[in-house]
Automatic annotation (TrEMBL):
It is an enzyme of class 3 (hydrolase). Its EC number is 3.5.1.1. Homotetramer. Residues 211-326 form the Asparaginase/glutaminase C-terminal domain. The gene is ansA. Belongs to the asparaginase 1 family. This is L-asparaginase 1.
Length: 336
């Protein structure tokens, strides 16, 4: 059988880093040489691959929407030449990039798997080798036509994943959705669907950086503080509320939200809880937000919500359309 071809977009992250006097920093050429020289990656059962090393390689804390655009455009340019794509990325903002790509890549039928590691390949006990090897293997043999995130034996939907552990190998979870696949002695497809037909056509929606505020409510939070964030250039505000979407019944705050939504600000209600969904009909404290024009983010992760807002706000859509689409399931990012 013809060996599949995988394109590896290597953007940076711990996986290819080396020690320096200031801590780990990206090391040019190191990962590419290591992987190319490794017998394991070149076994017959493995796909053929090309690695495109980005310049400069970055720690993912330095990622921005401009980088999401670079990665999406890169995949589009190479789309017809490869069977699948692996994006090597730092773990810190990996879930944001995976979510952003899931919205930006339109009519995707080939697998795009984002992965990385907690310990660099250059160090003892690195998780980089298994993560990359499995991601490449899955991209070649389990063509799930969506953006996913592979880490520690689990393949998650990209826009459902979130970083859960700062220093453990099980760095990611998907609190509101079962994984697409589990990797053990056998590979088990759970929610993942193999692409019924593969096409070489791919669309990319251009995104631009947007002014979006995130307010994490806490008992006694000052309304003045929230007000200070609501400048004229603000396009959207994500409210991280209590429980099923509740907020203090503070008249001044509700008035502030009401006036803001009436003048076109998109306010999305997400729960601070890691699992479960917003239901503003559950309590009077949530209902008051609904009456102030706040919309539900259902069970989206913050990463999915923020990147979806970037995606929609970049498209010259009417505010009402954005509000409507924010509450629709566009790429499997929410359950309703
Ligand atoms: N494990 C990692 O990759 C963390 C690193 N700081 C990054 O996100 O680039």
């Amino acid at each position: 059988m013809k060996r599949k071809k995988i394109y590896i977009a290597y953007t940076g992250g711990t996986i290819g880093m080396k020690k320096s006097s200031k801590g780990y920093i990206p090391a040019e050429g190191f990962l590419t040489q290591t992987v190319k020289a490794s017998a394991e990656f070149n076994r017959e059962e493995m796909p053929l691959f090309d690695i495109h090393e980005y310049c400069p390689l970055i720690d993912s804390s330095d990622m921005s929407p401009l980088h999401w655009q670079l990665i999406a455009d890169d995949i589009k340019q190479k789309y017809a030449d490869y069977d699948g794509f692996v994006v090597l990325h730092g773990t810190d903002t990996m879930a944001y990039t995976a979510s952003a790509l899931s919205f930006m890549l339109e009519d995707l039928t080939k697998p795009v798997i984002v992965t990385g590691s907690q310990i660099p390949l250059s160090q003892l006990r690195s998780d980089g080798q298994v993560n990359l090897l499995n991601a490449m293997y899955l991209a070649a043999n389990y063509p799930i036509g969506e953006v996913s995130l592979y880490f520690n034996n689990q393949l998650y939907r990209g826009n459902r994943a979130t970083k859960m552990h700062a220093d453990g190998f099980a760095a990611f979870g998907s609190p509101n959705m079962v994984p697409l696949a589990k990797v053990g002695i056998n590979i088990e497809l759970v929610a993942g669907q193999l692409s019924p037909s593969i096409s070489n056509k791919l669309g990319v929606t251009q995104i631009t950086p947007q002014q979006i505020a995130v307010v994490h409510l806490y008992p006694g939070i000052s309304v003045e503080l929230i007000k200070s964030m609501m400048t004229d250039s603000l396009k959207a505000l994500v409210l991280l509320s209590f429980g099923v979407g509740n907020a203090p019944q503070n008249k001044e705050m509700l008035e502030l939200f009401n006036n803001a939504t009436q003048s076109g600000l998109v306010i999305v209600n997400l729960t601070q809880c890691l699992q479960g969904s917003v239901n503003m009909g559950g309590y009077a404290t949530g209902n008051a937000l609904l009456n102030a024009g706040v919309i539900s983010g259902y069970d989206m992760t913050l990463e999915a919500c923020l990147t979806k807002l970037h995606y929609l706000l970049s498209q010259n859509l009417e505010t009402e359309t954005i509000r409507h689409l924010m509450q629709d399931n566009l790429k499997g990012e929410l359950t309703r």
